Please model this.
Amino acid sequence: MVGTGLAGASAAASLAELGYKVKAFCFQDSPRRAHSIAAQGGINAAKNYKNDGDSVFRLFYDTIKGGDFRAREANVYRLADVSRNIIDQCVAQGVPFARDYGGLLDNRSFGGSQVIRTFMPVGKPDNSCCLVPYQALERQMGLGNVKCILATKWLM
Ligand SMILES: Cc1cc2nc3c(=O)[nH]c(=O)nc-3n(C[C@H](O)[C@H](O)[C@H](O)COP(=O)(O)OP(=O)(O)OC[C@H]3O[C@@H](n4cnc5c(N)ncnc54)[C@H](O)[C@@H]3O)c2cc1C
Model:
Protein backbone atom coordinates (compact mmCIF):
# COMPACT_ATOMS: atom_id res chain seq x y z
CA MET A 1 0.00 0.00 0.00
CA VAL A 2 1.46 3.36 -1.01
CA GLY A 3 0.17 6.13 1.23
CA THR A 4 -1.52 5.88 4.60
CA GLY A 5 -4.23 8.51 4.48
CA LEU A 6 -7.88 7.60 4.84
CA ALA A 7 -7.81 5.41 1.74
CA GLY A 8 -4.46 3.71 2.31
CA ALA A 9 -4.77 3.19 6.06
CA SER A 10 -8.27 1.71 5.89
CA ALA A 11 -7.36 -0.50 2.92
CA ALA A 12 -4.14 -1.72 4.57
CA ALA A 13 -5.94 -2.46 7.84
CA SER A 14 -8.81 -4.21 6.03
CA LEU A 15 -6.44 -6.36 3.95
CA ALA A 16 -4.52 -7.30 7.11
CA GLU A 17 -7.80 -8.16 8.81
CA LEU A 18 -8.49 -10.51 5.87
CA GLY A 19 -5.21 -12.30 6.55
CA TYR A 20 -2.82 -10.62 4.12
CA LYS A 21 0.67 -9.53 5.16
CA VAL A 22 0.77 -5.87 4.10
CA LYS A 23 3.61 -3.44 3.58
CA ALA A 24 2.42 0.17 3.92
CA PHE A 25 4.69 2.86 2.54
CA CYS A 26 4.32 6.13 4.41
CA PHE A 27 5.71 9.43 3.19
CA GLN A 28 5.78 11.26 6.53
CA ASP A 29 6.88 10.39 10.05
CA SER A 30 3.31 9.45 10.93
CA PRO A 31 0.23 8.32 8.95
CA ARG A 32 -1.57 11.02 10.93
CA ARG A 33 0.11 13.66 8.80
CA ALA A 34 -1.88 12.65 5.73
CA HIS A 35 -4.12 15.21 4.09
CA SER A 36 -7.09 13.20 5.38
CA ILE A 37 -6.54 14.51 8.90
CA ALA A 38 -7.76 17.94 7.70
CA ALA A 39 -11.25 16.72 6.77
CA GLN A 40 -13.80 17.49 9.46
CA GLY A 41 -17.16 17.96 7.78
CA GLY A 42 -18.28 14.39 7.20
CA ILE A 43 -18.86 12.08 4.27
CA ASN A 44 -21.63 12.40 1.72
CA ALA A 45 -23.39 9.18 0.77
CA ALA A 46 -26.49 8.59 -1.32
CA LYS A 47 -28.24 6.35 1.17
CA ASN A 48 -31.42 8.47 1.07
CA TYR A 49 -32.04 7.87 4.80
CA LYS A 50 -33.99 11.14 4.97
CA ASN A 51 -36.20 10.01 2.09
CA ASP A 52 -35.74 13.38 0.41
CA GLY A 53 -35.19 12.11 -3.09
CA ASP A 54 -31.48 11.34 -2.97
CA SER A 55 -29.97 8.85 -5.39
CA VAL A 56 -26.61 7.81 -6.81
CA PHE A 57 -27.34 9.93 -9.88
CA ARG A 58 -28.23 12.96 -7.75
CA LEU A 59 -24.99 12.72 -5.74
CA PHE A 60 -23.12 12.23 -9.01
CA TYR A 61 -24.78 15.32 -10.51
CA ASP A 62 -24.23 17.48 -7.38
CA THR A 63 -20.56 16.48 -7.29
CA ILE A 64 -20.01 17.20 -10.98
CA LYS A 65 -21.75 20.57 -10.58
CA GLY A 66 -19.88 21.33 -7.33
CA GLY A 67 -16.64 20.71 -9.20
CA ASP A 68 -17.60 23.27 -11.87
CA PHE A 69 -18.02 20.44 -14.43
CA ARG A 70 -14.26 19.84 -14.48
CA ALA A 71 -14.13 16.45 -12.71
CA ARG A 72 -13.75 13.17 -14.59
CA GLU A 73 -17.31 11.87 -14.82
CA ALA A 74 -16.51 8.14 -14.65
CA ASN A 75 -14.58 8.64 -11.40
CA VAL A 76 -17.32 10.82 -9.89
CA TYR A 77 -19.96 8.25 -10.80
CA ARG A 78 -17.89 5.56 -9.06
CA LEU A 79 -17.55 7.83 -5.99
CA ALA A 80 -21.35 8.28 -5.87
CA ASP A 81 -21.95 4.59 -6.48
CA VAL A 82 -19.64 3.29 -3.73
CA SER A 83 -20.51 6.11 -1.29
CA ARG A 84 -23.12 3.91 0.42
CA ASN A 85 -20.66 1.05 0.96
CA ILE A 86 -17.98 3.41 2.25
CA ILE A 87 -20.22 4.43 5.16
CA ASP A 88 -20.73 0.76 6.03
CA GLN A 89 -16.96 0.17 5.79
CA CYS A 90 -16.30 3.12 8.12
CA VAL A 91 -18.90 1.94 10.63
CA ALA A 92 -17.45 -1.58 10.57
CA GLN A 93 -14.00 -0.15 11.22
CA GLY A 94 -15.31 1.83 14.19
CA VAL A 95 -15.94 5.41 13.02
CA PRO A 96 -18.35 6.89 15.60
CA PHE A 97 -20.83 8.54 13.24
CA ALA A 98 -23.61 10.58 14.87
CA ARG A 99 -26.80 8.67 15.50
CA ASP A 100 -30.38 9.73 16.20
CA TYR A 101 -32.16 8.92 19.44
CA GLY A 102 -33.36 5.62 17.97
CA GLY A 103 -29.73 4.59 17.39
CA LEU A 104 -29.79 4.85 13.61
CA LEU A 105 -27.14 6.74 11.67
CA ASP A 106 -28.00 10.43 11.47
CA ASN A 107 -27.37 12.92 8.67
CA ARG A 108 -26.87 16.63 8.42
CA SER A 109 -27.12 19.15 5.66
CA PHE A 110 -23.62 20.09 4.54
CA GLY A 111 -21.86 21.52 1.53
CA GLY A 112 -24.79 23.34 -0.01
CA SER A 113 -26.59 20.30 -1.44
CA GLN A 114 -30.38 20.28 -1.66
CA VAL A 115 -30.69 16.94 0.13
CA ILE A 116 -29.51 15.84 3.58
CA ARG A 117 -26.85 13.18 3.07
CA THR A 118 -23.78 13.93 5.22
CA PHE A 119 -22.62 11.30 7.72
CA MET A 120 -20.58 13.10 10.36
CA PRO A 121 -18.44 11.79 13.21
CA VAL A 122 -19.60 12.84 16.68
CA GLY A 123 -17.69 14.95 19.18
CA LYS A 124 -14.20 16.30 18.85
CA PRO A 125 -12.03 15.77 17.01
CA ASP A 126 -14.33 15.55 14.00
CA ASN A 127 -11.54 13.97 12.00
CA SER A 128 -12.11 10.49 13.42
CA CYS A 129 -12.86 9.36 9.84
CA CYS A 130 -9.08 9.44 9.53
CA LEU A 131 -8.10 8.61 13.10
CA VAL A 132 -10.12 5.40 13.24
CA PRO A 133 -8.52 3.78 10.15
CA TYR A 134 -5.18 4.95 11.56
CA GLN A 135 -5.92 3.14 14.82
CA ALA A 136 -7.06 0.06 12.90
CA LEU A 137 -3.76 0.26 11.01
CA GLU A 138 -1.81 0.57 14.25
CA ARG A 139 -3.64 -2.45 15.65
CA GLN A 140 -2.65 -4.52 12.64
CA MET A 141 0.92 -3.22 12.91
CA GLY A 142 0.92 -4.35 16.54
CA LEU A 143 -0.31 -7.79 15.48
CA GLY A 144 2.55 -7.96 12.98
CA ASN A 145 0.28 -8.08 9.92
CA VAL A 146 1.23 -4.63 8.58
CA LYS A 147 4.75 -3.33 8.27
CA CYS A 148 4.81 0.46 7.95
CA ILE A 149 7.85 1.63 6.01
CA LEU A 150 8.87 5.28 5.89
CA ALA A 151 9.12 6.22 2.20
CA THR A 152 11.93 8.64 3.00
CA LYS A 153 13.98 5.60 4.03
CA TRP A 154 13.15 3.38 1.07
CA LEU A 155 13.78 6.23 -1.37
CA MET A 156 17.34 6.59 -0.07
C1 LIG B 1 -9.30 21.21 4.91
C2 LIG B 1 -9.94 20.02 4.25
C3 LIG B 1 -11.22 19.67 4.61
C4 LIG B 1 -11.83 18.59 4.02
N1 LIG B 1 -13.09 18.24 4.43
C5 LIG B 1 -13.68 17.16 3.90
C6 LIG B 1 -14.95 16.74 4.37
O1 LIG B 1 -15.54 17.34 5.25
N2 LIG B 1 -15.52 15.64 3.81
C7 LIG B 1 -14.89 14.94 2.81
O2 LIG B 1 -15.45 13.93 2.36
N3 LIG B 1 -13.67 15.31 2.36
C8 LIG B 1 -13.07 16.39 2.87
N4 LIG B 1 -11.83 16.75 2.41
C9 LIG B 1 -11.21 15.95 1.35
C10 LIG B 1 -10.64 14.66 1.94
O3 LIG B 1 -9.90 14.98 3.11
C11 LIG B 1 -9.72 13.96 0.93
O4 LIG B 1 -10.38 13.76 -0.28
C12 LIG B 1 -9.29 12.59 1.46
O5 LIG B 1 -8.82 12.72 2.79
C13 LIG B 1 -8.21 11.97 0.59
O6 LIG B 1 -7.78 10.78 1.22
P1 LIG B 1 -6.63 9.93 0.61
O7 LIG B 1 -6.31 8.80 1.56
O8 LIG B 1 -6.98 9.55 -0.79
O9 LIG B 1 -5.39 10.93 0.47
P2 LIG B 1 -4.37 11.60 1.61
O10 LIG B 1 -5.04 11.78 2.94
O11 LIG B 1 -3.80 12.77 0.92
O12 LIG B 1 -3.32 10.45 1.77
C14 LIG B 1 -2.36 10.17 0.80
C15 LIG B 1 -1.12 9.67 1.52
O13 LIG B 1 -0.19 9.20 0.55
C16 LIG B 1 1.10 9.65 0.92
N5 LIG B 1 1.95 9.60 -0.26
C17 LIG B 1 1.90 10.34 -1.38
N6 LIG B 1 2.85 9.97 -2.23
C18 LIG B 1 3.53 8.96 -1.64
C19 LIG B 1 4.63 8.15 -2.02
N7 LIG B 1 5.24 8.31 -3.20
N8 LIG B 1 5.07 7.21 -1.17
C20 LIG B 1 4.45 7.02 0.03
N9 LIG B 1 3.41 7.76 0.44
C21 LIG B 1 2.96 8.71 -0.39
C22 LIG B 1 0.87 11.03 1.49
O14 LIG B 1 1.96 11.44 2.25
C23 LIG B 1 -0.39 10.77 2.32
O15 LIG B 1 -0.05 10.29 3.60
C24 LIG B 1 -11.17 17.84 3.01
C25 LIG B 1 -9.87 18.19 2.65
C26 LIG B 1 -9.26 19.26 3.26
C27 LIG B 1 -7.85 19.62 2.85
User: Anything to note?
Assistant: Residues 2-8, 25-28, 34-36, 38-43, 151 surround flavin-adenine dinucleotide (CB under 6 Å). The helical segments are 6-17, 56-66, 73-93, 128-142, 151-155.
